[in-house]
């Protein structure tokens, strides 16, 4: 794990590598993904079944759908503790996203004109839930609840089933959410099926959910034919901390992202050289105790960095440049730093707010922008599952009041019929 000092000669070049960490080389997989999408568009279920046999290593034989009975059986088989945990997570995520729900509004002007905005949920949403190195029931909750809050009536879930098996907790979460349509298909194949439809899987209007580079590339290619949430890459965490932070706590937090994926990134920015070195030592003490040590170690060795800044002001500036997915501010006066944070997917304030609580049940969504895209993307939310329609209504007086300016602009653009459509109404 490297330690960088902002006053070292090559700091800028090394830091630029971290800023430009989003090295998902889509160009290499684009031909493969394009071929998968084209094949499913042309041959539907036949192509889909062949791709499942190839990539997930099982023969479909009409068992593509996950049944309601399978979902309920999995839920009934859970311990009371896990049942309760799922309910707590669902309730908290639902309550948070309810606050995001926009309402239709109308504004009435004195001249009789009416302006407004109509909020309508999409008809059909497709949720992609990863299932490669690990299964993520939490991702299902985070993607499904905003769609449910938005009022989407038709929700389709796709998740890979390696050798035909789906994680039991994921099945149980499907039951808790009341999902009616779920299918054992993953990767670019799932994205293509939801984007264009097959005999088995209906076409959707929006696709959300994280995935590997094949999934991300597929989402990019189908965007425009359907809407998507974002192009998500490997998970990442950034921590701003000073000597008031607990070394062991922060080391574990950095490892909590490293254990996701070999390509995950973990960053610490601190003004304390001693704290930086203590964190590095602590991380390598903890690593051998992790069940996913091999994955976490590669991530820490290849993708992690500790940056020693000259002060907290510089630490904030550097973290804003990194624009990380998860940002912990582990200092005594963490709330004072909030106004200065410009770019982060989710912000965790204080010494007792580990990123993990946001992953599961704090309430805010854990589907977040990665790779620096927090500069322009937002977390997944209710807004991803609604549409806004503008409302305009005018009577003759209202139109007359605006007609001169409207006709002048139409005339300037050389659009005679536009001008005339106003003129014939106010003559």
From TrEMBL:
SUPFAM superfamilies: ALDH-like. Its cofactor is Zn(2+). Keywords: Amino-acid biosynthesis, Histidine biosynthesis, Metal-binding, NAD, Oxidoreductase, Zinc. PROSITE patterns: HISOL_DEHYDROGENASE. Its EC number is 1.1.1.23. Substrate binds at residues 235, 257, 260, 326, 359, 413, 418. One of its GO terms (biological process) is L-histidine biosynthetic process. Belongs to the histidinol dehydrogenase family. Binds 1 zinc ion per subunit. InterPro entries: Ald_DH/histidinol_DH, Histidinol_DH_CS, Histidinol_DH_monofunct, Hstdl_DH. It catalyses: L-histidinol + 2 NAD(+) + H2O = L-histidine + 2 NADH + 3 H(+). Pfam families: Histidinol_dh. This is Histidinol dehydrogenase. It comes from Campylobacter geochelonis. The keyword NAD applies. The active site is at 325 (proton acceptor), 326 (proton acceptor). One of its GO terms (molecular function) is zinc ion binding. NCBIfam families: hisD (TIGR00069). Zn(2+) binds at residues 257, 260, 359, 418. GO terms for cellular component: cytosol. It is an enzyme of class 1 (oxidoreductase). PANTHER family: HISTIDINE BIOSYNTHESIS TRIFUNCTIONAL PROTEIN, HISTIDINOL DEHYDROGENASE HDH. Pathway: Amino-acid biosynthesis; L-histidine biosynthesis; L-histidine from 5-phospho-alpha-D-ribose 1-diphosphate: step 9/9.
């Amino acid at each position: 794990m490297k330690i960088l000092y902002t006053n070292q000669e090559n700091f800028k070049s090394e830091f630029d590598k971290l800023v430009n960490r989003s090295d998902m080389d889509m160009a290499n997989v684009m031909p493969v993904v394009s071929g998968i999408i084209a094949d499913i568009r042309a041959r539907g279920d036949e192509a889909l079944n062949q791709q499942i046999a190839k990539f997930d290593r099982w023969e479909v034989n009409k068992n593509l759908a996950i049944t309601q009975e399978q979902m309920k059986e999995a839920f009934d088989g859970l311990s009371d503790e896990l049942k309760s945990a799922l309910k707590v997570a669902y309730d908290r995520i639902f309550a948070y996203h309810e606050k995001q729900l926009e309402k239709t509004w109308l504004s009435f002007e004195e001249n009789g004109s009416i302006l407004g905005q109509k909020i309508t949920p999409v008809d059909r949403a497709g949720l992609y839930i990863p299932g490669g190195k690990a299964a993520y029931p939490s991702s299902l909750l985070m993607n499904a609840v905003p769609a449910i809050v938005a009022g989407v009536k038709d929700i389709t879930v796709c998740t890979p089933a390696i050798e035909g098996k789906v994680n039991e907790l994921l099945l149980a979460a499907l039951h808790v959410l009341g999902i009616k349509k779920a299918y054992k298909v993953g990767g670019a194949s799932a994205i293509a099926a939801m984007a264009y439809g097959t005999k088995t899987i209906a076409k959707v209007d929006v696709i959300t959910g994280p995935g590997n580079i094949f999934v991300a590339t597929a989402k990019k290619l189908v965007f425009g034919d359907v809407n998507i949430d974002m192009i998500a890459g490997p998970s990442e965490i950034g921590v701003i901390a000073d000597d008031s932070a607990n070394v062991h706590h922060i080391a574990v937090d950095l490892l909590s992202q490293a254990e996701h994926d070999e390509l995950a990134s973990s960053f610490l920015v601190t003004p304390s050289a001693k704290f930086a070195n203590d964190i590095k030592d602590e991380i390598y003490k903890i690593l051998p105790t992790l069940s996913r040590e091999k994955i976490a170690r590669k991530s820490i060795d290849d993708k992690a960095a500790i940056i020693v800044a000259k002060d907290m002001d510089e630490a904030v500036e550097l973290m804003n440049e990194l624009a990380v997915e998860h940002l912990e501010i582990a200092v005594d006066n963490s709330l004072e730093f909030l106004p200065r944070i410009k770019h982060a997917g989710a912000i965790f304030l204080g010494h007792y707010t580990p990123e993990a609580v946001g992953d599961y049940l704090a309430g805010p969504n854990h589907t977040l922008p990665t790779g620096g895209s927090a500069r322009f993307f937002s977390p997944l939310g209710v807004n991803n599952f609604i549409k806004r329609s503008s409302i305009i209504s005018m009577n003759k007086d209202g139109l007359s009041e605006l007609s001169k300016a409207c006709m002048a602009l139409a005339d300037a653009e050389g659009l005679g019929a536009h001008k005339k459509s106003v003129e014939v109404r106010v003559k």
